[in-house]
Structures are given as structure tokens and as C-alpha cells.
Write a structure and sequence with these properties.
The structure is a homodimer. In chain A, about 75% of the residues lie in helices and about 0% in strands. Chain A has 9 helices and no strands. In chain A, helix 5 packs across helix 6, helix 5 packs parallel to helix 8 and helix 8 packs antiparallel against helix 9. The first copy, chain A, is elongated, with a radius of gyration of 20 Å. The model of chain A has no long low-confidence stretch (mean pLDDT about 95). At the A-B interface, helix 8 and helix 9 of A face helix 8 and helix 9 of B. Chain B binds a DNA duplex through helix 2 and helix 3.
DNA sequence: TACAATAGGTAACATAGGTTGCACAACATA
DNA sequence: TATGTTGTGCAACCTATGTTACCTATTGTA
């Protein structure tokens, strides 16, 4: 008996994601979102409690998108798995600057270096690849992650503009260099 | 004949800098600044054209403060000059998180890797320290700078919390590792 | 086809922030 | 001490944004 919905939660979330891409989180206002959708603000507040909930949906969608970047580079097999993780992170920063800034360049107090059990998978891989002890492998990973995050955040702010091929070479430099450094220290 | 000024441009700029430290650039509003100063908004707009000019003064003051961090670590002589630059950058990020984010984690399109003639000083130092060609030395510096910026930005967002001693060790790892990597490649 | 239920549009209200007009107060000078 | 100049506080105005009340339009069903 009631009229059909013209808009779904998903459509609104997508429009909000696009707005965030274009104008950053601050550009995501109720009226701007309504214009993006071609409607008034009413449908937004019918389907979402408030703008905070919309921002939450955008955050969640951005995280899913990031995961798809990781999965894609993992599945492509172009790089070994450990490197693929870094390349996916950087590719996401390069192609989704605003979303990267929103997810990874905000205050992150209390957030672990890697979520959940990911560390439990990564560290053994490094130990196997490098022959380092667990403790050394963890420090090695920290330093690699610093490097990866450094590239990604410089690209996200347009301070650097590297092709992914160049990024690959630079990551190899860091990996091989640190590996040599850590393995040499191991022998002492 | 007129009443004395109760506030100077400098006092206002300082209060604005403190507000930015506490609440970030978004926390720097005319009313909040007035409260910090213990006055109405009028003196602010008497001494500054508008809030944009206040923000400009804060930016400038933050840059000066950053330069003082660099100068201090350079003068201390605790680290070699090249390393001191990185340590100063990271120490600034650690002790002035909001100011660091404002200066170095915003959009930086068109900004050169290093301002002015600084590169002309740094590259020869690296060439001397490592024996690399100019081209290789520039890539080496880029990769070191990525590393330094990575640490600094992770600390600024509270994603990492490292003592400066730890930072020093990590920087040494990166420097020695990359140096080994680059010098080995040089010999091919 | 008439109706009930309700999605959507319009316009209003509330709040935050930038900016300004006005009356008053302060103070160096005569 | 009287005066002219002008810095200050107060309160208002304007805009942007979140949010909501209310009316209208739509549509599955009887």
C-alpha cells in the first residue's frame, strides 16, 4: 500500500562513498549527498538514523574495498604473498587517496599493527623467508611496514607520484637491504 | 590617547598555536581562540583580517618550530648530520603531533621532496658517505626519506609509539641496509 | 475505483562558526 | 580634570549543516 522506495541503503552508501572520494569525509554532508542522489535529504534520514551512521557505512565500504585490493594483488600471483600485501596497500593509497587517508592517516591510538591474527600468519612467513628468529622477524616486519606505509601515505597526499613498477623496485630495495642487514646481525 | 592594546599579534598567534596543538586545525575557531585568550573575538579581528590569516600565522609558526627541531638535532652533534635531519623530523612528529599532521600529512601536490637548495646539500653528502653516483644517491635519499616519513607519520597518528632511542636503531637499520643494497648493485 | 499506509519534498528549527556594528571604557594629552 | 581617539565586549547577522514536522504523492488491495 505504501509507495515503493526509490532509494536503498546500498545506493545511498555508494553515493556517500563517491562523495567522500571527491571531497573527503568533510564533503559528506546531508545536502551534498542528497544532491548526489538527486533527491531531498528525507530518504537518507529514513534509511539511516543520522549522518554518523552514513559515515559508518562509508567507512565500512572503504574497508571492504581495501580488502578487495589486497585480495586482488594476492590472487594475481605477480608478487610473492608478503610483497603483495604491501603492493595492495600502496595501490589502494594511489587509486583511492581520500579513502586511504580516511582509513589509515587518522588517529589510530590502540589499533594494532595488523588486525586480528594476521600477524600470526605473516611472522612465520618472514621467519621462513629470511631464517630470522621470531623476535628479529617481528622487528623486520615493523621496519618493512614503516616503509610500505611511508610510500603509501606520501602517494596519498600527492607528495610522491610513483608508477607501481617503480614502487615494486623500491620495495625490493627495502626488503633486500633490510634482509641483508638483519641476517648479517644474526650471525654475530 | 587610545586605550592600550591588551593583546598582540604574537600573543594571539601563540594562543592559536596552542589551540591547534590541543584540537587540531579544526579546533581553531574564532570563539575558541577568544576563550583561550580570555577576551572576545574582537581583538582577533582587529589584528588579523580574518581567521584565514590566523591559520596562516599558525602555519608559519609551526614551520618555524619545526626548523628549531631540525636545528637543535643538527647542533647537538649526537648524530651525523644526515641522520640528525631525520631524527629532528621524527622528534617533531612525536612531540607536536597535530602540528606535524598539519604540515606534513596534508595535500602536498607540487611540493618538492625537499625545499629550496636543500637537496643540493644533501645529495653530495650521501655521495660522499656511500660512494654512490648522483642518480643512485638520489634514489637512496628518496628511500631513506620514505622511511623517515613513514615512522614520523605512524607516530603522529599514535599508530606507533617508539622511544627516540628505538627510532635511532631503526633508522640505522634502514640506512645500513639500503647502503649495502645500493653499494652491492653499484659493483655490477 | 476508493482507501490506507507511507516514501518523498519542502521548509522550518537548532546549532556552530565567521564577521561586524555599536556603545562603552580606557588613557595620553591639554 | 576634561577630551578625543580607539580597543573591547556584546550581541546581532549570515551561512552551512544536522535534523524534523508536515503535507503531498504513490501504490497494493479491497
Amino acid at each position: 500500500m505504501p509507495p515503493k522506495f526509490k532509494f536503498t541503503r546500498n545506493e545511498i552508501t555508494n553515493a556517500a562513498l563517491n562523495l567522500t572520494r571527491k571531497a573527503g569525509p568533510d564533503g559528506l554532508t546531508a545536502r551534498a549527498l542528497a544532491e548526489e542522489l538527486g533527491c531531498s535529504v528525507k530518504p537518507i534520514f529514513d534509511l539511516f538514523k543520522n549522518m554518523e551512521e552514513v559515515q559508518g557505512a562509508v567507512l565500512s565500504a572503504a574497508q571492504d574495498l581495501y580488502q578487495s585490493y589486497l585480495a586482488e594483488d594476492m590472487a594475481a600471483g605477480k608478487y610473492p604473498p608478503y610483497k603483495a600485501g604491501g603492493m595492495g596497500y600502496i595501490r589502494f593509497a594511489r587509486e583511492e587517496r581520500e579513502l586511504f587517508k580516511m582509513l589509515f592517516m587518522c588517529d589510530r591510538k590502540g589499533e594494532p599493527l595488523k588486525p586480528g591474527k594476521e600477524m600470526d600468519v605473516i611472522i612465520p612467513v618472514i621467519m621462513k623467508n629470511t631464517g630470522l628468529s621470531r623476535e628479529k622477524a617481528e622487528l623486520f616486519h615493523l621496519e618493512m611496514w614503516i616503509f610500505v606505509h611511508g610510500i603509501a601515505s606520501m602517494i596519498a597526499t600527492s607528495y610522491l607520484d610513483l608508477e607501481m613498477e617503480t614502487v615494486s623496485g623500491v620495495l625490493t630495495d627495502a626488503y633486500m637491504g633490510l634482509k641483508a642487514r638483519f641476517c648479517a646481525a644474526e650471525e654475530e
